[in-house]
Design brief:
mainly alpha; 8 helices; 80% helix; globular
């Protein structure tokens, strides 16, 4: 069944072209869980055959990712606080917690957004606390684009070089994901150390 879904995605990308990549990545980056690897790996494979352009794939993927992130950001910005102030007590969320989040994102929103965009399962959700904290839109857009761009390039290149070998894709994708998480942990640790030294 997974193979059939993947084939359907490939067919959709081939039929709709870059618009299909844009729309699917917008969905993946918004509140609808959707794995970006089944979009960009096939797209990279099509690029290896000369049917698509790497630069256009990246532009479409990045554009779609930003649109999806903006959807979450603006929903959280316009509705999030109203909902949490009314119903937050049912989920043990106090208004003081929102104030703390505002302060955190004011100081560390850039690194949090960048790291969040590269962690599976979190990348779609990091826009929500950014919107709730009213994070500066330019800073949010910059670090969202940076993180989303790196991940899109990794997946596209994976499809470009080994797009026909599903077993190798599974192996390398797992190794790459683990490597990215390790690098992000090191980056987060360095950033925390830097902030402590700066405070002193």
């Amino acid at each position: 069944m997974i193979k059939e879904i993947a084939q359907t995605i490939v067919d959709l990308i081939f039929d709709w072209g870059y618009l299909g990549i844009f729309l699917l990545m917008a969905i993946e980056s918004s509140f609808i869980p959707f794995p970006s690897e089944i979009v960009l790996i096939p797209a990279g494979y099509l690029a290896s055959k000369g049917d698509m352009s790497i630069s256009m794939i990246m532009a479409s993927a990045l554009g779609g990712s930003l649109v999806g992130a903006f959807i979450n950001y603006y929903l959280a910005l316009t509705l999030g606080r109203k909902i949490l102030k009314r119903y937050g007590r049912y989920f043990f969320i106090k208004e003081s917690a929102l104030d703390k989040m505002d302060g955190f994102f004011a100081k560390h929103g850039h690194i949090s957004t960048f790291i969040g965009r590269l962690i599976p399962g979190i990348r779609q959700l990091i826009s929500i606390p950014a919107g709730l904290a009213r994070m500066n839109l330019i800073v949010f857009s910059t670090y969202t684009a940076l993180g989303a761009g790196i991940w899109a390039l990794i997946l596209t290149m994976l499809g470009y070089f080994i797009g026909e070998n599903q077993e190798l894709i599974d192996t390398y994708l797992k190794q790459i994901t683990i490597s990215v998480v390790v690098v992000l942990l090191l980056l987060g640790s360095w950033y925390a150390y830097y902030q402590k030294q700066k405070a002193k």
